[in-house]
Amino acid sequence: MSDKDPSLRRNAPKLALHVPEPPFRPGDTPDFSSLKVPPAGASPRPDTSVAAAETHELTTALVRVLGDDNKAVGAWDPKLDPDTLRKMLRDMVTVRIFDDRMYRAQRQGKTSFYMKCTGEEAIAVAAQTALDREDMHFPTYRQQGLLISRGYPLTEMMCQIYSNKGDKLKGRQLPIMYSDRKYGFFSISGNLATQFPQAVGWAMAAAIKGDSRIAMGWVGDGATAEGDFHSALTFATVYNAPVILAVVNNQWAISSFSGIAGAERATFAQRAVGYGIAGLRVDGNDALAVYAAVKWAAERARSNGGPTLIEFFTYRAEGHSTSDDPSGYRPTNEAKLWPLGDPIERLKAHLFAIGEWDEERHAAMTAECDAEVRAAQKESEKLGILPEQGKDGVETMFDDVYAEVPRHLAEQRDAALAEGRD
Ligand SMILES: Cc1ncc(C[n+]2csc(CCOP(=O)(O)OP(=O)(O)O)c2C)c(N)n1
Ligand SMILES: [Mg+2]
Q: N or C: which end of the chain has fewer CB within 10 A?
């Protein structure tokens, strides 16, 4: 047989590619029984100065603190005081109410677009609580919990969503793509994974300046397939950047399941170790575990121990955005069958279990949050909603691009104005 003509190699095995397919499609009954969910408290908590390679076990495990009895157990229990727990619960409830009202506002035609984070509230809220107010976040469109937890005015968030007269970004950003340096919240970019190199770069700059603030970058499971994810990890490890890199693995990237980004082969946290970065895989629906993991990574970064990649394992309970209909690609009851539960219910049950909360207080607090969101909505809607918004003069699109409008743009602006007058 000749080696020159590959078609003649009849006895060799045929090469084949594997094309990942989600385990369940619309109409199927989801079955998560093969999912390995270790008991709460099972993971060891190494010292924050541990060598990155030694975190390997933690990248395949799942750090969990809240047990089936709703008590906090194990080495990762952050031992938070009840006021902090109640504040986190309140923030998470506010995020959910905010999401519901803004989703409805989109359906009522008051804005063009909205994105919820249902089921993922614990991740942004607990991460924010674990960091310092001065630390810098590089968020994606699903971390509204960071702003809400930092006490950002809800009215301002809504004005941005409505792109109305109160929108500080003047309608130049897609609704929900907030930006506020004062709140340590970098401008959201729709371009996936840009957050990672930006966070690493900011963290490197902080170190160069001798600053003590750290950065936290955020991406989704799907975005880890972007080149930016990998170059960010390279820079982070080479320069030992004081950064926390969060992968929110909600298992979906619009209609692509996480297998398309490589989840069938290794966990997202495992990617860290290959780069020489510490990795943690955490139950993202367990607010205490999220808090503890971010605190661990922050301590490591602040003491020049280097970067940490944290995978928050969760489930995107609703559509990708108001433009998406998940019933077209996954079973409609999948979110309900997801075994890690609802993060709000779990934190609430924990507060009940330690005798620091009850139904009456919960109902009163929920009513307060609801009233707060409604009041903010009323206030922001006074400043404009669709279809009245968006009638700015054509000349305004030339503003804020350059410090001084260059000659050729000035000419275009004048021509547009002249045409408008005809
Ligand atoms: C570079 C780039 N590619 C594609 C898109 C289109 N897009 C927007 S969101 C999204 C899915 C992202 O999924 P994931 O990273 O898992 O985040 P999630 O939406 O689940 O929070 C895609 C493909 C984009 N915005 N930017
Ligand atoms: Mg995703």
A: C
Work out the angle between the directed axes of helices 154-162 and 82-107 (0-180°, nearest 10): 20
Residue 78 Cβ inside 6 Å of ligand 1? The answer reads no
Domains with residue ranges and CATH for the chain = 34-391 (3.40.50.970), 393-422 (no CATH)
Rounded mean pLDDT of the chain?
A: 95
Give per-residue pLDDT as tens, 15-42: 999 999 999 999 999 999 999 899 999 9
Identity of the residue numbered 158: M
The ligand that comes nearest to the alpha carbon of residue 113 is 1
User: Could you tell me which of 249, 321, 296, 316 has the C-alpha nearest to residue 77?
Assistant: 296
| CA-based nearest residue to 157, from 234, 99, 118, 221 | 99
What are the pLDDT digits (tens) for 114-127?
A: 999 999 999 999 99
Which entry of 320, 330, 346, 350 is annotated as an active-site residue?
320
Asked whether the CA dihedral 313, 315, 320, 324 is positive or negative, the reply is positive
278-283/256-257 β-pairing:
unpaired
Compute and round to an integer the Cα radius of gyration of the chain: 24
Q: Does residue 288 contact residue 126 with C-beta atoms inside 8 Å?
A: yes
Residue that has been written with the tokens 């019933």 in this structure: 327
**18 classed as catalytic:** no
Q: Is 329 a catalytic residue?
A: yes
pTM confidence score = 0.95
Maximum Cα–Cα distance across the chain: 82
- The distance of Cα 66 from the centroid of its chain, to the nearest Å, equals 21
Q: Six-digit token pair at 336?
A: 């309900």
Question: In residues, how long is the chain?
Answer: 422
Confirm or reject: Cβ of 116 under 6 Å from ligand 1: no
Rounded to 10 degrees, what is the CA torsion of 191, 316, 318, 222? 30
Active site (annotated) includes residue 320: yes
Q: Are 111 and 163 in contact (CB under 8 A)?
A: yes
In DSSP terms, 308 is beta-bridged to: 244, 278
Q: How far is the CA of 4 from the centre of ligand 1 (A)?
A: 44
What is the three-class DSSP state of 219? strand
Quick one: pLDDT band at residue 394, thresholds 50, 70, 90?
confident
Q: Is the CB of residue 221 below 6 angstroms from any atom belonging to ligand 1?
A: yes
Pairing of β 252-253 and β 243-249: unpaired
The protein residue whose alpha carbon is closest to atom 21 in ligand 1 is: 220
Strands 215-220 and 252-253: unpaired
* Angstrom distance (rounded) from CA 124 to CA 147: 9
Residue 37 burial (CB count, 10 A): 12
